[in-house]
Sequence to fold (232 residues):
Amino acid sequence: MPLRRWVDSAGHAIEGILYAAKTQRHLRYHFYTAIFVLILTYVLGVGRTDFLIVAIAVILVILAEMINTAIEYVVDLLSPEHCESARIAKDVAAGAVLITAFGAVIVGYIILFPYFSTSFRKGIYIAKHSREEITLIATILVVIAVIVLKSFFGKGHPLSGGMPSGHAALAFSVWVAITYSTESFAASLLSGALAVIIAQSRVAIRAHSPLEVIIGAILGVTITLLLFFIFL
Fold:
């Protein structure tokens, strides 16, 4: 079925992300930097256009690092012994990452410097955001946190198994976001029930252990609650 093939393809793609994050120390650093930069832009109250530019720069750095990793593996496969051409190919790929990262730093400096200057003149403050914006950043950070933790523990598959449960993390993150966004007891109750059902289903089909589901739920709730508490 087309949907099943798409899910399988997505699983393989996420597997590649997790493997790269697990084996490549620099890629993990890029993920940590991405989390820091995203939170920083929200603290400084960066405008949407500036935020989009910074986000694209961060994505390009991560993309370049992953392409560099793929090139290194292909070169090692085709040329397991020392070869000058293989060395050049790896160096050029690494140089591409360096240029991308350097460019991202320049872009970040140009965009963020005025916001730092404003904070310095007016004093340190935390910008407030709409519920929709907080929900978006919470979803992104939960996904990144799940990727980092799964790569750290190195168990299971992207869409099935491993510590923590990504399904539970996202389900409970959405529950918190709906609760804050709607301020409706009925909506909160229904979304919370759905989150519990999703979490229970991961245990029922033996994709996750109860502990993995519980940790995933705590992760999603904690990140989302903190973001709404800080930025709302």
The mean pLDDT is 86. Helices lie at 2-23, 25-44, 48-78, 84-122, 131-153, 166-182, 185-204, 210-231. The CA atoms of residues 161 and 207 lie 5 Å apart.
